[in-house]
Amino acid sequence: MKNHLITEETKQKYIDFEKEAIPHKSSLFNFALKMTGDPDDADDLVQETYLKAFRFFDKFEKGTNCKAWLFRIMKNSFINDYRKNSKEPDKVDYEDIQNFYESVKSNEVQLQHLVEDGFSTVFDDDITDALADLPQDFQTIVILSDIEGFTYEEIADFVACPIGTVRSRLHRARKMLYSKLYKYAKQKGFVEEAV
């Protein structure tokens, strides 16, 4: 009978993985829920992401952004599943995935509901509603930049568009949010009355 002992190297891999990757689980789930539209599918996608990440953790460069690395794995897994399910092995871009999501979600599941579920513990209803009202492309960029903290370069890589487009969409999305949330900000005392 073989002795199945865990090596020190494997133990260290578990420790490093838990320290670097596991803290991002809720962020991954929130974005997976946004992409899939279904909590069970989001759980599956996050689980698949962590399995792949652990398997290839030796390829992760310590000291770099683990969260961005995990999001990239998740995005690639989602695209690969989409390709497999749609039986279209050709190149798929991010907008196709967004359109696919819109066409397969059930009528009773609304995007606003998904955003509220994902961010209800973080934001007031007014902020959640304003975020849910943004067009999908703008919403994605705001979430990745202002909530998840990704750089322009990381977002551009994630949504497969030029950095200039990311900056432009983020600027326009913030202006839309500003106009939607100005009254809210005054009520909460974030904006002082002009004298």
Description:
- The chain has helices spanning 8-20, 25-36, 39-55, 66-86, 94-104, 111-119, 125-133, 136-147, 152-159, 163-187.
- The chain is mainly α and 195 residues long.
- It has two domains: 9-105, Rna Polymerase Sigma Factor, Chain: A; 110-189, Orthogonal Bundle (Arc Repressor Mutant, subunit A).
- The chain is elongated.
- The termini are far apart.
- Residues 104-116 and 118-122 have low confidence and may be disordered.
Question: Which secondary structure elements does this structure contain, and how are they paired or packed?
Answer:
Elements: H1 8-20, H2 25-36, H3 39-55, H4 66-86, H5 94-104, H6 111-119, H7 125-133, H8 136-147, H9 152-159, H10 163-187
Helix pairs in contact: 2-3, 2-4, 2-6, 3-4, 6-7, 7-10, 8-10, 9-10
Keywords:
mainly alpha; 2 domains; Rna Polymerase Sigma Factor, Chain: A; elongated; 195 residues
Report a brief summary of the structure.
The chain is mainly α and 195 residues long. 70% of the residues lie in helices and 0% in strands. The protein has helices at 8-20, 25-36, 39-55, 66-86, 94-104, 111-119, 125-133, 136-147, 152-159, 163-187.
Largest sheet: none
What is the CATH level 1 assignment of the largest domain?
Mainly Alpha
Q: In angstroms, what is the radius of gyration?
A: 19 Å
Query: What's the CATH architecture of the largest domain?
Result: Orthogonal Bundle
Beta percentage is under 5%
What helical percentage do the residues reach?
Answer: over 70%
Number of domains: 2
- Helix/strand-derived category reads mainly alpha
Name given to the CATH homologous superfamily of the largest domain: RNA polymerase sigma factor, region 2, helix turn helix motif
How many beta-strand elements? 0
Based on CA inertia axes, which overall geometry fits? Answer: elongated
Q: Could you name the ranges where pLDDT drops below 50 across 5 or more consecutive residues?
A: 104-116, 118-122
The H/E string reads HHHHHHHHHH
Could you report the average pLDDT, rounded to the nearest whole number? 78
